[in-house]
């Protein structure tokens, strides 16, 4: 295995010069730095990141902590966050919440980034509070004792409801009832829009494709049924759309459908889906910027908000006559 000493000998420079060059120090002349980089590449040199962290006192490792990645949104966000940090020469390690946090701390990560709502997990909240490294939280519904990037889900759902109302829809339903924050936002949005809330228009279901599919399949249609539905996430909405089409319900001619979360595949569904959700690319860039500030021990805002964006496609239309 090639070492820094080997590279120093081949380049005809000191050990410390090679070390500084590999850490992109401005103290090393650019031509010398590029010569060292070329030798390192030619001999397949790999830096010992942990050793480098210990020597420099800085870490270029960032720990991404998720409770689950069963929704494509999580994978997409992790990928975009990784890409944004990689541009600044930081490396990400993706892991699941629990004992893995200890491992990330042992690896001397510069920060921990968590996606989710910590109010649902007191033990995890306590563990993060004890962490020896900075913590940043994405997507939490309630205040946390860490810097965070919050999504204004209420405003997003209100935008969807108001848009459907502008198309003439008066009876609007919700597919999925396992996310209380969205169910409550849906109720409040209907009230603010001057539309009635009916418990029977909230179809029971959790957060998977199958939940959306079964919710629609089990629904008993009548002349008083909703003329539009909002799905609680991208998977539920895609499952609901499949069930509607199988049952001969034309979208949007007979029923309009909006999905929460805007992923690229929503545009390529059987009927391109109108969506409401935070712009994930912007969210990743904002998160990366804050994480870098935390690693560099800069002052950051306690809370930053991002607003969901409505993207109109062909799954929504005027209320049927």
TrEMBL record:
One of its GO terms (molecular function) is DNA-binding transcription factor activity. Residues 2-56 form the HTH lacI-type domain. Transmembrane segments: none annotated. Gene3D superfamilies: 3.40.50.2300, lambda repressor-like DNA-binding domains (1.10.260.40). It comes from the Bacteria. The keyword Transcription regulation applies. This is LacI family transcriptional regulator. Keywords: DNA-binding, Transcription, Transcription regulation. InterPro entries: HTH_LacI, LacI/GalR-like_sensor, Lambda_DNA-bd_dom_sf, Peripla_BP_I. Coiled coil: none annotated. The lineage of its organism: Bacteria, Bacillati, Bacillota, Clostridia, Eubacteriales. The keyword Zinc does not apply. It comes from Sulfobacillus harzensis. CDD domains: HTH_LacI, PBP1_LacI_sugar_binding-like.
């Amino acid at each position: 295995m090639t070492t820094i000493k080997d590279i120093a000998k081949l380049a005809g420079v000191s050990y410390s010069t090679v070390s500084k060059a590999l850490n992109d120090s401005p103290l090393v002349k650019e031509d010398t730095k590029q010569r060292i980089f070329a030798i390192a590449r030619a001999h397949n040199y790999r830096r010992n990141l942990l050793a480098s962290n210990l020597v420099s006192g800085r870490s270029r490792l960032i720990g991404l902590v998720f409770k689950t990645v069963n929704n494509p949104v999580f994978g997409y966000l992790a990928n975009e966050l990784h890409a944004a940090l990689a541009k600044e020469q930081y490396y990400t390690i993706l892991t699941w919440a629990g004992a893995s946090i200890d491992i990330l701390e042992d690896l001397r990560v510069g920060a921990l980034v968590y996606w989710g709502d910590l109010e649902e997990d007191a033990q995890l909240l306590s563990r993060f509070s004890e962490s020896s490294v900075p913590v940043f939280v994405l997507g939490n519904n309630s205040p946390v004792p860490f810097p965070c990037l919050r999504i204004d889900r209420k405003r997003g759902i209100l935008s969807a409801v108001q848009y459907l109302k502008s198309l003439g829809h008066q009876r609007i339903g919700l597919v999925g009832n396992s996310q209380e924050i969205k169910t409550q936002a849906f109720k409040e949005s209907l009230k603010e829009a001057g539309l009635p809330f009916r418990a029977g228009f909230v179809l029971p279901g959790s957060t998977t494709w199958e939940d959306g599919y079964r919710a629609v399949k089990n629904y008993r249609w009548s002349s008083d049924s909703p003329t539009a539905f909002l799905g609680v996430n991208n998977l539920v909405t895609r499952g609901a759309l499949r069930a509607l089409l199988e049952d001969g319900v034309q979208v949007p001619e007979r029923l309009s459908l909006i999905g929460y979360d805007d992923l690229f595949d929503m545009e390529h569904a059987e009927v391109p889906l109108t969506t409401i959700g935070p712009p994930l690319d912007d969210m990743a860039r904002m998160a990366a910027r804050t994480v870098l500030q935390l690693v560099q021990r800069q002052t950051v805002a306690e809370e930053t908000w991002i607003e969901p964006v409505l993207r109109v496609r062909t799954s929504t239309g005027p209320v049927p006559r």
